[in-house]
Every structure is written in structure tokens, then in C-alpha cells.
Amino acid sequence: MFDSLISPKSVAVIGASHNPSKIGYVVLKNLATHGYRGEVYPVNPKGGEILGYRVYRDIGEIPPVDLSIITLPAELTVRVFEDVARKSKFIIPIAGGFGETGPEGKELENKILEIANRHGARVIGPNTVGIYIPRSGVNTALIVPERSRFPGDGKIAFITQSGALGLLTMDSFAMYGVGFSAFINLGNRVDVNENELLRYFGDDDHTQVVILYIESFKDGREFMRIAKEVSVRKPIVVLKAGRTARGGKAASLHTGALGGSDAVADGAFKQCGVIRAYDEVELVDYARALAYGKPFSGNRVAVVTSAGGVGVVTTDYIESDSRGVGLKMAELDEETKRIIREEVVPFASVENPVDMTAQASDDDYDGVLEALNDDPNVDAILVYALFQTPLISERLVDIIEKWHHRGKKPIVVGTIGSEFSMKMLGEFEKRGIPAYPSIERAVKALRVLHDRAHILGRLIE
Amino acid sequence: MFDSLISPKSVAVIGASHNPSKIGYVVLKNLATHGYRGEVYPVNPKGGEILGYRVYRDIGEIPPVDLSIITLPAELTVRVFEDVARKSKFIIPIAGGFGETGPEGKELENKILEIANRHGARVIGPNTVGIYIPRSGVNTALIVPERSRFPGDGKIAFITQSGALGLLTMDSFAMYGVGFSAFINLGNRVDVNENELLRYFGDDDHTQVVILYIESFKDGREFMRIAKEVSVRKPIVVLKAGRTARGGKAASLHTGALGGSDAVADGAFKQCGVIRAYDEVELVDYARALAYGKPFSGNRVAVVTSAGGVGVVTTDYIESDSRGVGLKMAELDEETKRIIREEVVPFASVENPVDMTAQASDDDYDGVLEALNDDPNVDAILVYALFQTPLISERLVDIIEKWHHRGKKPIVVGTIGSEFSMKMLGEFEKRGIPAYPSIERAVKALRVLHDRAHILGRLIE
After folding, report:
1. In the structure, what pLDDT confidence band is assigned to residue A1 with cuts at 50, 70 and 90?
2. For chain A, N or C: smaller number of CB within 10 Å?
């Protein structure tokens, strides 16, 4: 149903501009540089040519399109809206100055909705940064390209009520090569809302996890109904902002949200299998764990490290209920200990955490991961790939990849360091292995895989 | 007292090697490349020259030195120890194979301590990566330089029981330009311990904050006594690992630590003004806040953002007691609101968070920060420097720097994004402004500045 929005065969840009600082230029530039391959119809009464695209003087001149992006101010948007709606399956009016500004703006908003309904066009927004779909090259967002990054294609669909928070978040994760299947900013949400989109991405083959930033649900009950359905086959992570009284007030000023009690939301999320994130980092960290990792229902974690202190802090985070995730450190099988001690790394500490010390080699990791994979007392493995010691090479990524894909046990990777470690983080990402740049983030990702198994157990029973 | 260790006028490397993969080579290489300017005396029976340094065949040939680094295996270390002790104020035996391996190793350890005591030499280690002092260029740590970074000079002294955790942590923060005044790995801690070092760095003019990674205190009461004294003038952050039963067991296998109850430790830390970190990221994040930021005793925070959603999530984190830091969002003075609305940014939301939207310019930030600085209802400011929007430039760093230094209110900066934002994070760091790459980390840093004010209030009363 949203295929024409996600992969439009033709796009009109209403309010196309020659001025590089205008959104009417940026959208065209985005289409050109992000590899959009469909038809492009810039519309501007002045005509001419922009970025090699022929500019149409009047929307009447262009054929029907899948998607129209209106880059005009609010009043002009309303003025052209009927003509645009006649030609378009989807319309994205970018401008603010609608419902978020008060009753007058609200009226403008009602007007465009009425027009759209009449013509059977669907509206994303208004007051939105719009959408970014890496694989189709549609990108309506205005951010300065020299100072930010757009992510590549991936398995995470991102539905957000805050455009800026969404773009910033994608920017920060793009550095490690994290990709997205779609990014949609709901804006004032006069028409298309999170519920329809959640259902759509629930069935979308390109999407393995749906994440949402929401300040208020359009229809909470409906969301829960759909979420319960979708989360049987696909994990959902929600960052519900405005969870405190004061945060709720800030949200109401931001998107007009009226949130309910946070305890109620929490209970509802649990019931319908939604995993909760509390900030922009958790939102994407959890999505990556769920997109790449295997859920596990046991709670016994084996930790592999070459740095003893990292093993100790990890153990604390795994076991602690207060500052930690309340899982358990596995008691390794005697046979596992024997193998590690006698066949693999005689100098290692074979208790869990398995500490191979700075003498560890790639092959030592291989042997230890094999032994842990065979250990009936181990439900999941957290392995630290620390590239600072001399006997470790980039081959460690291949070894972990092998056990991630071939092994029975879920694996989460931690890596701590600067540029080189970040590059390796990108390498893990590329191969679909959940990897994290800090102890706490790695442990929390593990916990989410455990939660996911329990959600599935509950929903499927 | 530790001056000859931190800034030695002469260094002997016992076991100097031509083999680039040996620590006996790496230490010399480190001295050469980190700009050590004192005398260097490599010692190896083969003689010759390494990296341009003349190699002495026998330790008897060299004059007395401030520091000797022994890069030989345990048994050889013991064999040469008497000769080394005769010549040295400080000795760092790098090798493992001492007390951490069992009773026999313990005996070797006792032997070197006895020798050192007899000659009045002090020992760091054994079983240690040693020390790294950026400003004197002494660096005994073996990590692969192509895959890691050593930080530059800075204001944080880092005392750690785990060498690897320490090096990894410094590596990851070096990426943002975070510097350290000293790094000392206690290793098996036969002689020099955290208490003496804490006292020393408490008086060290180069150090503004002391951070410790500790699995077990050598003498907890003594630590608390010194910490209470030092923390009156200098903040102390401790990562006490092994805080859970299982973590304690892991610690005992790692460094032979025998930890006590975590609740007792927590109470003791509070009493003596120690700020607690739970992982490697908090440890350095908190240190940076405390090194650069102003403590504040009120609890009313103003938040400035150009991204509405970021303001909402921040509000939740500031106000929440469960997932948050339990501070308050300031109720802005009416005059502040008037100034912001009428004189600075008419399009901004003047409630707190102050949301200037993507239209914000550098000057808008300037005006808003000025107004908030003058607001009697505001105790601290969290400002998001988001460089993705078109009207923001690098000048924003100058503006925030001005208010950070000139203004009365403490400022913490948040910035979210990829390479460019990371570069700006480095720029803030360079100017001594506490800046963080995520919402949660920025809010937690603020909280630590608040805690610090209360610690000072309690200790000084």
C-alpha cells in the first residue's frame, strides 16, 4: 500500500528552486545524488532547468505521479494543494506553519486533508522533514551534507514523530555503516500515521525491525493491536518520549502530543511485545541486535575477553539487577574448561569470563568460541574483539562471523577503541553481526535478545 | 615524591631488544616517538645500538637512573633485580608470572620487594603494562600503534588495576582528543599502591581529576581517609569493579582481589566524596565534566536545542528518577522568555527546553545563552550543538566557549552525529568544555557536576 511512497516511479517537486539554500533545490539535489532512478518533475512558474532536470511551469503540464513533494511555505502549499492532489498518490508538504502554530494553522491543515481525501491522495506531514529511502534514492531532508551523513540501505525501518531527532540519530549511526530500509517523519500527522506504517513495514521484506520515536500515539489501542500482530514476526522498538510529566509537557509543545501515564504505556508495551528504548542510542542499538542477532530464552551468558578488567565490569553489568541487566554468568561445563585449558589457551583463565589475556591470537578466539558453542551450559556469548594486542588481526572478524552464522549460540560483540576499532565496528555491521563500542551497550544488546525470546514465547503460545 | 617516576630525568630499559615485536623494543620505540627528552640507557648483554640509542652490556656500566623498566621474563627479572635496584629510584617490572600465578610466583614477588626495600627503590607492578605519561614521553605499554591511539597531555590522572581496560579506555577517548596527565597500571601492586598515588595526584598541579579502576583496595580505610582529604580540592571518580558476587569472583581471578560488600563500598564512597562510575565510559565522561565544568548546587536545568525531540528525551532523562538523574527542568523567568521571544528567536519555543528549531543560527544561540545566564531560575545549562542545520557554523563552538568561560552558569554540551560532529566534539574538548555524543551521556555529566557541588558542601562545612 505504501509502495508508491517508498519506491515511487515518479516524483514531482512543487516549488523547485535554483537557490542551493532552499529546500526546493535540496530535494532535487538529493534525488540526483542519492541515485533516484524514476521520473523527476520539478515545478516552478519560472521554468528553465535545475540540476539537469527540465522544470515545468505548471503542475497541469506533468503526468500523474506516485509522489509529490511540496517545498512551498504553508499558505502557498494550501493554494496549490488541489492541483497537486489531482496528480499524486502521495503528497509530502514539507512546510511548517500548520497545526503546530495554533488554530489558524490547524484550519490550513484540515483544508489540505479534506482536499487529499477528496482526491484519494495520501499525505505525509505537513511540518515534516519527509522521508528518506536509501534503496530508492528518495530523500526530502534538508541537512548540510558536508556536516552529516545519510545512512545506506539496511534492515531497520524508522518511523518518527521528530524529524530532527531521527536525522541526527541516523547521522550518528551512519558512521559505523548502520543502514535503514526506510525513514519516515510523520510531522503533524494529518493523514498517514504510525499505525498504518507499522503494519506496512511489518509485511515489508526489506525490513527486519521497526523502530519508532513517538511522543503521542495517534490511536494507542490500535497501535497495540497492530504491534501485537507485527511483533510475532518482526521486532518493534519504541522510544516513547514525554514519559515524565515535564517531558510530556515538552512533547505537547513540540508535536502537540498528549501522553498518558508512563506506567500504563509500559504495561501495554510489554503486553504487545514492544521493546522499549529510552534514548536515541538504545533505539538503534537494540534494533541492530534484533535485526542481526538470535533471540535466546535461557539466561546464561559466556564472556570472552583478552582484557581482564573488561571481563569483570561485564560480569557486574550482566549479573546486577540495579545497574545491570539481571542475566547470569554461565557456569562453564567441565569439558569446556578442559578443552580451553588443554587444547586452546593454556594461559587463559577458564572460569567465565574466559580471559585469554593480551597473548590471545585469532586462533585462540576460534577455539574458545567453538568450545563455548558446544557447551550445554551456555545460552549466549558476549565476545570482546579488542584489536590493540599484537596477535590479533582483522581475521578475528571472519572468525566471529563464522561462529555467528554457523554456531547455535547468539553472539554479541564488544569492541573498545578509536579509529581502527570503529572501522572494525563497521566491518561487523557490514556482516550483520551486532557489535557495540562499549561494555554497557554490548550487555544491554544481549539483554534485548533475551527479552525478544520471551516476547516470542508469550505471543506464540 | 613520585616526580622521578612521572618525569624521570633518566630511564634504563633492562632487556632492550632489537626485535620489534618484543616489549624490550617497544618501550624504547615509545621513548623515541613520544618525545622523551631525558637520558635513555638500554641494557642488553649483546650491546650494539637500538633505534639510535647506545646499548649497554651490563647495568653496572650505567649511572644511577630515576626509572628502570625491566622487560625481561619473571625469572630473569628476579635475577637482575638487585643490580637494577642498586641503580634506580623507581623500577617497573613488566612481566607477568608473579603473584597472579600462585604461591611460587608470589615468592618471586616477595623477593623483588625485599630487594627493592633494601635499596630504597620503589616498584610499580609487577605484571603491569606500566605507565604512560604524555607530557614526559614515558610510555611502557605494548599496544599495536597502527590499531590504537595514545592520548595527549591532559588534566586527568588515571590509576588502574587493569592495564588493558585502562589502555582501551584511553584509546577510545583519544579519538575525541581527551588527554591525561598520567596513566599508571598498578599490576600486582607489591609496593606502590593507589593510596600513595592518589595522595600524590591530589597535590599534582597538572592533574585536575583523579580516576581509578579498582577491583580491590589495598587498604580501604586508608583510601577513604586520603580520598576525603583529596576530594576537598580535587574530584575523584572510582570504577569499583567486582561489585556483584560473580563480578567479585571474576576480579579475584583477575587481580587476586577480595572485594567487600558493594553497599558498604557505596556508603563509604559517598562519605569521602568519591564519585562512582559503573563502566569505562562513565569513568572518563565524569572526569571530563569535573575537570572542565563548574559544580552547581541548585537542581534547575535549562536545555537549549534545535531539535524538538532531543529536548523532549532530555527532559525525561533530567526529571526521571528511575531512568534519569532526578534533577529539575528550570521554570524560566518571564523576562527570559520575553527576551528570547522578542529579541532573539521569535520562532522558538520559549518554554524549557528552549527549542529554536532547525532555523536556529549561531547568533540565536548566543542570545539564548546570554538570557539563560542571566535567569535567576536557572542553575545549569545543557546546550545541544547540532551542526546538521544550514545556519549553524563552527562559530557555535566559539559562542559556547564564551559563555562557558565568561558566564556564571555551568554549561554541558551535547552533540549527535557522525564525523563532523565528532570533530566538533574534539574542538569542545580542546577548549575545555565538557561535551558528549549522546543525550544520556550529556545529562549524566550534568548530574555529576551537581553531585560534586554537594560533595564540596558536605566536606567543607
Report:
1. confident
2. C
